[in-house]
Amino acid sequence: MDPIQTIMLGVLVLVFLVIGFLLGKWIVNMQWLEKIPEIRADAVKRSRAVLGGQFSEQLAPYLPDFNYSPTEARFIGKPIDFIIFKGMDEKDIKEVVFVEVKSGKSGLSTHERKLRDVIKDKKVVWEEYRIPEDLTKKK
To answer: What pTM was estimated for this model as a whole?
Structure first.
């Protein structure tokens, strides 16, 4: 085979490879385009579930079956939803309760499970921090 034929064969192979690549890319893009409405609908559904859960968390103290006074509940959000100061209404706190609000079939996250275990193991500490005086004095 002479050099011209070899070059022509190489160019022809290269053209077929480029056409095959572009055709494959087009087919993959068409498959994604068909799935976009389904993907968007799923994203909206998940977003609504998250927002509904967040709304429910903050509304929980005002629901009829919530076991504590809403005025004694303090919303934290992460890593626990509420800290309840039982007796705060009477200015005599007798108990501190950690409350995690869940809706539907949702379960505790790894962080929430670890926090629950730490609390159940009574590894809770009171600490007081005082701001150094030299930071609080006006100069």
So the answer is: 0.62
The position carrying tokens 């929430």 is 112
Q: Which domain holds residue 118?
A: 1-125
Q: Is residue 33 part of a domain?
A: yes
Per-residue model confidence as pLDDT tens digits over 56-112? 888 899 999 999 999 999 999 888 999 999 999 999 999 999 999 987 788 899 999
b/e 98-115 (16+ beta carbons within 10 angstroms → b): bbbbeeeeeeeeeebeeb
Backbone φ/ψ region at 108: left (φ over 0), alpha (ψ -120 to 50), beta: beta
Q: Which two tokens stand for residue 89?
A: 């209404």
Q: How many structural domains does the chain have?
A: 1
